[in-house]
Amino acid sequence: MIKKLDVFKDAKSIHQVMQAAYKVEAELLNIQEFYPLNRTVKDIAESKNRFFGYIQLDERQSDELTGICELEMVDKHTVLIAALVVKPTSFRKGIATQLLEHVIANEKDKTILVSTAEDNIPAVALYQKFGFEIYTKLTLEDGLKIVELTY
Known about the structure:
The chain has four helices and seven strands, in the order βααβββαβαββ. A hairpin with a 2-residue loop joins strand 3 (about 65-75) and strand 4 (about 80-85). The protein has helices spanning about 10-30, 40-45, 95-105, 120-130; strands at about 1-5, 50-55, 65-75, 80-85, 110-115, 135-140, 145-150. By secondary structure, it is of the alpha+beta class. A seven-stranded mixed beta sheet has the order 1-2-3-4-5-7-6, with helices on both faces.
C-alpha cells in the first residue's frame, strides 16, 4: 500500500530506509563519501518536499515502511523525484515500480524529472522502462557521473 507520509512524524523511519538503501548504492558505485548518506533525520523533518511510502506487513503483521518516494516541486508544471529508495531486504519485489507508477499517475499533468548515477544500471533501466528519457549527463566534482532523465 502506498500512502502519503507525515514528514515530521515519519522522519526517523524515512531516514532509516534511506540510509539502508543509499549504503547499498554507495557500495554499488564504489563510493566512500556518498552525499545522500549525510542527510539527517532533522533535514528530513524540516523538508518541504512530499514523501510517499510503500507500507507492507512485516513478520509480526505490523506496518513496515519499505519504500520511499520524495517529490520536490520545481515549479507549478514540474516535479522532481528527489529520492526513490527501497529497503534492501525488500529489493526485487516491485516496490520501486509501484512507487514510480504512483508518481506518474498522480503527476500526469506535470513534467517529471529525476537524476541518478549513470552506473546505477537498475535505476536507469527502471526509469527508461517507464518512458523516461536521458536529457543530459554530467560529472560532479567528486567524479560521480550523473544522468538526468525526464518524463
